[in-house]
Amino acid sequence: MSxxxxxxxxxLMAQAVDSDKGLKRxxxxxxxxxxxxxxxxxxxxxxRTAAAAGExxxxxxxxxxxxxxxxxAFAGLCYAEFASxxxxxxxxxxxxxxxxxxxxxxxxxxxxxxxxxxxxATVAIAWSEYLNNLLGxxxxxxxxxxxxxxxxxxxxxxxxxxxxxxxxxxxxxxxKGTQESATVNAVIVFVKVAIVLLxxxxxxxxxxxxxxxPFFIPEGTPGHEGWNExxxxxxxxxxxxxxxxxxxxxxxxxxxxxxxNPKRDMPIGILGSLLVCTILYVLFSYxxxxxxxxxxxxxxxxxxxxxxxxxxxxxxxxxxATLISVAILAGxxxxxxxxxxxxxxxxxxxxxxxxxxxxxxxxxxxxxxxYKSNMILFIFVGLxxxxxxxxxxxxxxxxxTLFAFVLVCAGIWVMRVKNxxxxxxxxxPLVPLVPILGMLVCxxxxxxxxxxxxxxxxxxxxxxxxLYFGYGKSHSYLRKGK
Length: 482
Known about the structure:
mainly alpha
């Protein structure tokens, strides 16, 4: 039987029908937009902005966000069509199963582990950093850093305990229920967006125009020898770094099986959250790089760049730095919440197809949430958060996201050719142009990632192939005729 056996759409739609044994349909359009914004605005904005400016783009990090947003927009349009047409959990994995077959679906499902699970770990690490900053550094270095990190004083990390704590709390909330999780997320999102707007509004008057000159990092700048570390190459290098800031809108699609009216609400949730966050990102990065020179972000304030900029350049606004740190902690929490939910829903779908063990699709008898999957993910993500540096996990997350986007864009093109007669509540415009542009932009951003990240990512994908041929292929329900 072919590796590219496709799951019939009729079978997928049958799974979408709600039942007493399935996931609850409790989310409306507002909940979905809030989930998207909750997942998007977090570590990417508050941590990766300064990293991209200092390492690759300089003040042109503003353009890096635009480039990344364009790539996301192409992919977002493709996601919106799929999510409205195939309203079940699983996101890109499910779409690939219906269009390009089981083998490709497995690959993309395994890549989504890099996106959602490692995103949770990365943001948990950032949560720990901001908590320590808020507490004045009172947490000992060795208990809030990985064993692979060493302080300027020569102290080596042991494990990141605060990161483990927040992961445990949010896992318990997810087990309690989807609606409860969405309510907690909505409150957090309101606070987070309000604080971002406050920073933009107050920080605008502290912009120093000289910080924008030169706008691009000049060729020959020490420490910026790579093609993607200066000039327009730096803009693309910066885009690959800040692309992490945009993951989240696709996580909305994993909740399709829990949406009340997915055909209408899924496109609104996906594209609406992406639009809101893009506008906020461009304004935020413009203000941040205008307040502090991009070269400062190479060292100073690396773990808390926003608080550093406020304390250094906004005299009399120390309270704002504290307030932002509190809001960031809450914001990071919402990102972790949505990412953990997204990963458990992908495994839920893969388990229902027999490609991963049945334990990942077992629902709580009262809450109807994949509680065992949530607990297993806590252990897996917790190991990364406790023992792996944040920058490594963050770059791997970007690879997983970009790879998924490329395949979703390809899937729309394939579906239009093979199934032109299907009803599409939302239609991606200008096919195949939009999918092709999405594949080119996202593929280019993958190429912009550093070599070590790519080697680790391809090693991860190779390990995934071993698991597929060792377990998934022989246990596939589709192959068994179930």
